[in-house]
């Protein structure tokens, strides 16, 4: 949990190379790989009133802040089609932004038969990027197709997982008639810069024989003898590997070095394999239930590599994704055979390990994938550090992990929930028999080992079935094994009728199981982060070494047998460094100054400076949860509040002393039930002091605590109160920088404006009309949570042209569903808020979408964007729209080639943009490193412009996003991600906190034996978006 106010300028700008922290499973819950191929005082006495204080759930009035008014302006007409630069690009024709007759979504002239820059007519020839044909599409006919397409996609949800690539050779991968596709790059890259830098990228060029054919086979493995019930028997991955190894070793027609296996049911081969069904006999020494299997092989496709070459050279319109997937499996085959696969990364069987805690180690490895780029095919490989489990007995694990010291019936009954939470979903092996079989823990048995009995049938059917105690069964079948802990439950391994009951002492955790950052304690998470944040020079050396090792993706002979070869040198590119913008701050209450940022770090400070728009804070209070701590160092100093008030006033806020201070113990954070009376008391005092018009509650905690989520949930959904949390040990230091950071967050939460751009944002001139920026993201449940909803979050700016005040909306949706349901209606609600505050709807929208992979672009365009347009169409509202996807979960890293090309810490300078060589061959994408990398290796954000009705050039959109990164409200430096999606990310995580708090409340009041995964079933998602009206239009989440 990242505590609010903890450290000056915290945020993505400070975290480099380690990915996004604190994302509810973000990163744990999200699966965002490249889709399609492989796969966060004193009391003021007030006179006594006769009115009764309000009830706890009563909503207090809290008007939203007013924003700058502007006169309504009509959006300009579309510009005509831009000329396409031919430099280093294949000749292509690009579609002019336009509308279908009768269904104009933009403000440009309607062109019959074409709709928007991305629309492809139904009979467009493959490989032709132009829509200048004479096809006639009537408005009604197209509307019907549009509605049918949207409804179909809504029904099927996200792109389905490909179980077997049964694609015919002649099948076209072009989109369905009338669907949208990502736009093409409008030029050959940007030109704007203050200097250029030479960069090395962890993209290694890949050459391949275009005449080669990779044969794709589907395999099916099943026991020779069917199960008595007649139901299909699922063969485990362990047994599947045993069967394959046996077949390939016994049959010379299956050459091991000429094939690659994806671990599921797909084999890719460089030579023709025999098809049909084969009988495989496993050795009697193998401890498996069945020793004879039927292995079926079916040819489903021949992947011709010339299609990929045609795509890379611009002669094929659609990416042959099945070819790329097959080649990606080939490149993973060598490390798969010699290393341990953990998630999407590979780790050495005997890795360099650093101990963490609870039987965990930090293991170094690598992650790689193939990418189509402007220079051709490239292998992207990056260094990876994961927290993984060691092989440890379950009994020892419980002793260390949850400090369970006594193993008897009473201790298990008292701590049932903790034990199940620790064990459910983990993989174990058993020690009472020789086997490689891995089992998944599904829970604890409801009876102790000594009380469990089951029926055993005579295998020869000579004797009647008999009832046997579990303990007796183990003594008879496995002589010499004595069960020590008889009066505790067993582990339930597997599901349903196939579940096995095994005593805990006979189970061992499988080595190499990954733990996500959110599951680690503070010290272990810090150690893992430090290992992940390798210096750029060290990271570059590690990457090159991992590629060249014998067990790497290009080691051995497998890839060479497929005609694939990897260059051992990183790709060299030229990056452009853009000029940072001037900022607007005040030097006095009535004087605004232009501020130049530091040339190297692009940071600025607030010494002798005031925020642009400071709020007035007269009604606020303090909840001191540190006052009862034993150690004086953990209690809040009395001089903190005067220092904070003085610093905030010096910053430009009009801040009075708090009305009152309420004291409580940290123990009240144990549950929502214990915290609620404390906050109700605060509310009653607020009623006496200011008629319940409390603007802010400052919560001081002696340490980080999981009860933070209860503070946020109760105050933001039940009371309607903005809170700001801080740690007493940080507050007691009284550092000016820390106090200023708190003041900035408080100001932004209450509707103020900290820093603004001195000049208007690029892309839009003064006559552009009103522009709204929208950010959207989805937070998914953490690992091992199989029922909780995903949380969709959308934010929108309300004050053009400053565009730094946002209104949030949260919406729960289906479990692990990335598509934002009702995206159009959420955006329409935000647009109505804009109209209420500014007197006019925005004429232009720039939408930033976070968290989607390339394989989900189709969903974003044809479900979310088309759904949005359909909602707007219904009310005759037609703003022009640009849609940009921002990706942080990728493996591309940029390294300065020489010391002169980098900054003081060895990273590329902020403002570096790369839009050649390593980008997509034709689509509109670029890498931007907008932040200063103080530690670790800077990770650029990968932006994809999917849809553009504003005719933006590469220079204009890159400068627009870079300048926007300087407007983030809670730090004095540019951040690594465009603020609209940064805010959406924070908002989605806040929604996850609300849900977790609500789930824990229901769980603690219900059956104590319910597990985390199942407790969510008792929690209704209908209250998730029931944010208190008093704060729903404030930036309470930053």
TrEMBL record:
Any Pfam family hit: ArgoN
Signal peptide residue numbers: none
Entry GO MF terms: RNA binding; RNA endonuclease activity
Domain annotation Piwi: ranges: 696-996
GO biological process terms held by the UniProt record: defense response to virus; regulatory ncRNA-mediated gene silencing
GO CC, alphabetical: cytoplasm; nucleus; ribonucleoprotein complex
Keywords, comma-separated and alphabetical: Repressor, Ribonucleoprotein, RNA-mediated gene silencing
Biased composition (Low complexity): 45-60, 67-98
PROSITE patterns given in the database record: PAZ, PIWI
Family, similarity comment: Belongs to the argonaute family. Ago subfamily.
Listed PANTHER family: EUKARYOTIC TRANSLATION INITIATION FACTOR 2C
Protein name: Protein argonaute 2
Gene designation per UniProt: LOC110789981
């Amino acid at each position: 949990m990242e505590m609010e106010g903890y450290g000056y300028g915290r945020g993505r700008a400070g975290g480099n190379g380690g990915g996004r922290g604190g994302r509810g499973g973000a990163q744990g819950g999200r699966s965002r790989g490249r889709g399609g191929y492989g796969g966060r005082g004193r009391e003021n006495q007030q006179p006594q009133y006769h009115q009764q204080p309000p009830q706890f759930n009563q909503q207090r009035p809290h008007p939203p802040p007013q924003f700058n008014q502007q006169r309504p302006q009509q959006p300009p007409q579309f510009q005509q089609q831009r000329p396409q630069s031919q430099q280093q690009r294949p000749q292509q024709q690009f579609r002019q932004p336009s509308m279908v007759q009768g269904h104009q979504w933009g403000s440009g002239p309607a062109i019959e038969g074409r709709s928007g820059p991305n629309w492809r007519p139904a009979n467009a020839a493959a490989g032709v990027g132009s829509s200048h044909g004479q096809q006639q599409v009537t408005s009604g006919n197209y509307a019907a197709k549009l509605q049918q397409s949207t409804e179909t996609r809504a029904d099927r949800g996200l792109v389905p997982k490909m179980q077997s690539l049964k694609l015919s050779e002649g099948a076209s991968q072009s989109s369905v008639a009338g669907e949208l596709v990502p736009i093409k790059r409008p030029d050959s890259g940007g030109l704007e810069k203050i200097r250029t830098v030479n960069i090395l990228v962890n993209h290694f060029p890949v050459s391949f024989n275009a005449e080669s054919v990779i044969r794709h086979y589907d395999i099916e493995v099943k026991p020779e003898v069917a199960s008595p019930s007649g139901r299909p028997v699922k063969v485990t991955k362990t047994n599947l590997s045993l069967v394959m190894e046996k077949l390939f070793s016994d049959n010379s027609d299956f050459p091991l070095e000429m094939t690659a296996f994806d671990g599921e049911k797909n084999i890719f081969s460089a030579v023709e394999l025999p098809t049909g069904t084969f009988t495989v006999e496993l050795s009697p020494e193998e401890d498996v239930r069945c020793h004879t299997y039927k292995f079926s092989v079916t040819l489903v496709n021949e992947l011709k590599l010339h299609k990929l070459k045609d795509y890379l050279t611009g002669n094929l319109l659609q990416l042959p994704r099945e070819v790329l997937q097959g080649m990606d499996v080939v490149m993973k085959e060598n490390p798969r055979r010699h290393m341990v696969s953990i998630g999407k990364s590979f780790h050495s069987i005997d890795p360099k390990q650093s101990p963490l805690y609870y039987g965990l180690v930090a293991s170094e490895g690598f992650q790689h994938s193939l990418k189509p780029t402007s220079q051709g095919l490239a292998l992207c490989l990056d260094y990876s550090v994961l927290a993984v489990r060691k092989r440890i007995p379950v009994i020892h694990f419980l002793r260390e992990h949850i400090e369970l010291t006594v193993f008897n019936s009473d201790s298990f009954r008292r701590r049932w929930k903790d034990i199940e939470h620790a064990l459910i979903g983990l993989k174990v092996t058993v020690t009472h028999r020789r086997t490689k079989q891995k089992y998944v823990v599904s829970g604890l048995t409801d009876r102790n080992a000594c009380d469990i009995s089951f029926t055993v049938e005579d295998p020869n059917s000579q004797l009647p079935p008999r009832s046997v105690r579990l303990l007796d069964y183990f003594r008879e079948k496995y002589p010499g094994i004595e069960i020590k802990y008889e009066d505790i439950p067993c582990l339930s391994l597997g599901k349903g009728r196939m579940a096995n009951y095994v005593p805990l002492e006979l189970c061992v955790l499988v080595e190499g199981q990954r733990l996500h950052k959110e599951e680690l304690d503070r010290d272990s998470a810090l150690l893992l982060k430090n290992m992940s944040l390798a210096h750029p020079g060290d990271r570059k050396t590690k990457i090159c070494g991992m590629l060249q090792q014998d067990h790497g993706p290009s080691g051995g002979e497998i890839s060479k047998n497929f005609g694939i070869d990897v260059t051992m040198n990183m790709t060299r590119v030229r990056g452009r460094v853009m000029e940072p913008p001037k900022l607007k701050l005040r030097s006095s209450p009535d004087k605004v100054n232009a501020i130049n940022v530091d040339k190297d770090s692009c940071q600025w400070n607030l010494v002798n400076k005031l925020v642009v728009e400071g709020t007035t804070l007269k009604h606020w209070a303090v909840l001191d949860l540190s006052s009862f701590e034993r150690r004086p160092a953990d209690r809040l100093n009395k001089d903190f509040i005067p220092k904070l008030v003085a610093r905030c006033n010096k910053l430009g806020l009009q801040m009075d002393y708090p009305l009152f201070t309420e004291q409580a113990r940290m123990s009240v954070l144990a549950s929502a039930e214990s915290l609620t009376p404390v906050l109700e008391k605060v509310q009653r005092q607020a009623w006496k002091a200011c008629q319940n018009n409390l603007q802010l509650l400052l919560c001081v905690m002696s340490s980080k605590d999981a009860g933070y989520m209860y503070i946020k949930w109760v105050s933001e959904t039940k009371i309607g109160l903005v809170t700001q949390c801080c740690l007493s040990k940080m507050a007691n230091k009284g550092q000016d920088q820390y106090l200023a950071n708190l003041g900035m967050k408080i100001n932004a939460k209450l509707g103020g404006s900290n820093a603004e751009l001195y000049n208007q944002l690029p892309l839009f001139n003064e006559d552009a009309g009103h522009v709204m920026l929208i950010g959207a993201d989805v937070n998914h449940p953490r690992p091992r949570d199989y029922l909780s909803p995903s949380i969709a979050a959308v934010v929108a700016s309300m004050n053009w042209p400053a565009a730094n005040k946002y209104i949030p909306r949260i919406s729960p949706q289906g479990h692990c569903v990335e598509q934002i349901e009702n995206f159009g209606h959420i955006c329409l609600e935000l647009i109505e808020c804009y109209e209420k505050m500014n007197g006019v709807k925005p004429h232009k929208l720039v939408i930033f979408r976070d968290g989607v992979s390339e394989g989900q672009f189709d969903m974003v365009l044809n479900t979310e964007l088309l759904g949005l347009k359909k909602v707007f169409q219904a009310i005759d509202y037609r703003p022009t729209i640009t849609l940009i996807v921002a990706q942080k979960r990728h493996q591309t890293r940029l390294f300065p080639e020489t010391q002169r090309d980098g900054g003081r810490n060895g990273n590329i300078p902020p403002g570096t943009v790369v839009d050649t060589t390593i980008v997509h061959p034709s689509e509109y994408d670029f890498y931007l490193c907008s932040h200063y990398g103080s530690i670790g290796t800077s990770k650029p954000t990968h932006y994809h412009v999917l849809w553009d009705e504003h005719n933006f050039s590469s220079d204009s959109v890159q400068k627009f996003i870079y300048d926007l990164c300087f407007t983030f409200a809670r730090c004095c430096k540019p951040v690594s991600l465009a603020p609209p999606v940064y805010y959406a990310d924070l908002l989605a995580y806040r929604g996850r906190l609300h849900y977790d708090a609500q789930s824990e409340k229901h769980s603690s009041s219900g059956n104590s034996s319910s597990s985390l995964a199942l407790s969510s079933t008792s929690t209704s998602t209908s209250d998730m978006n029931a944010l208190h009206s008093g704060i729903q239009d404030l930036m309470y989440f930053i």
